[in-house]
Amino acid sequence: MNWLVASCATPNQQFLALARARQAQLTKPPQALGTLETIAIRLAGLQACEQPSVERVQISIFASDHGIVAEGVSAFPQAVTQQMVANFLQGGAAISVLAKSLQASLEIVDVGILEPLSEQAGLVIQRAGAGTANSLQTAAMTCEQVQLALQAGYAAAERAYSHQAELFIGGEMGIGNTTAATVLYCALLNLSPSTMTGAGTGLDAAGIAHKTQVITQILQRHAACGQDALAWLTCAGGFEIAALTGAYLRAAQLGLPILLDGFITTAAALVALKLQPALQDWLFLSHTSAERGHQSAITALGLQPLLDLNLRLGEGSGAAIALPIMRQACLLHNQMATFAEAAVAGKLR
Ligand SMILES: O=C(O)c1ccc[n+]([C@@H]2O[C@H](COP(=O)([O-])O)[C@@H](O)[C@H]2O)c1
Ligand SMILES: Cc1cc2nc[nH]c2cc1C
What we know:
By secondary structure, this protein is α/β, with parallel strands linked by helices.
């Protein structure tokens, strides 16, 4: 599929330079607003404008089921995936509350939960299958399925772009998906299952030991994938991770900045980065997840998290919680007075 490897848009160097110069003139000691300055400068370059903004935001949550759940790798039953999708749609989930308070547009994309829900407002049905296969026995997805799931993400980024979103947030829901994400980290970053495997939704020590074993076996089973990111995505799953991969790549191609959420969305970003390294320019990372392994992954990817609040929910919730920081960074950049405007004396030396 051609679009997967198409170039990302290029940050605008002129607006980057303008934004840097403006930050140096605002009434504060140089760099006193730290990372908030970097956020505003980066956004000005990405949005190619003098006044960056992340007021208009689309949150797309991709939901899907995982065959690997049969191996006892999650603390929660598989049915929770579909039940939480219903909860998102009814407004009762964390992301529902956050999206509403942020006035962000929220859509749920069913890319392959076991039993589809009926058509309703807020639900996009673009299924690549009914749950993935058990990756311990076979590839989680067929080649056709991975393309369908990538395409569902592509379509979500296109919707965000056509609705004039200024930022794209991807979320996910899928019981078992920390196993798939951990396989991708270990395979593509050469990290070990014993350091990368965590509790997910809340496994105890014995549960984590078993999950580590399962992940080790999945890695052995599909070792022939080598360093091929698309092959690993196909073998490990899941549909929602593939959809996130597609969404991130398409968003960057369209010139839409991306705010990553937690452990699973970062794994999708890893696959996307392997396919298109220039995606890096378009990524902001909201937080360090409490899921074991996320810190190592972030370090390996050279991403800078905005927050560390011990979150490990998913759904895009960490990104939603970090969004106000990005909004404040833009307001400060756009509305603070310069030294000249406010008649404040500049730095002596
Ligand atoms: O975002 C995170 O960092 C995160 C960390 C651990 C678990 N989750 C969520 O929990 C589910 C996967 O956990 P598990 O234990 O079933 O693999 C899935 O629905 C994720 O959204 C999310
Ligand atoms: C209740 C619940 C809510 C979630 N939201 C994202 N992943 C989740 C996993 C569980 C178990």
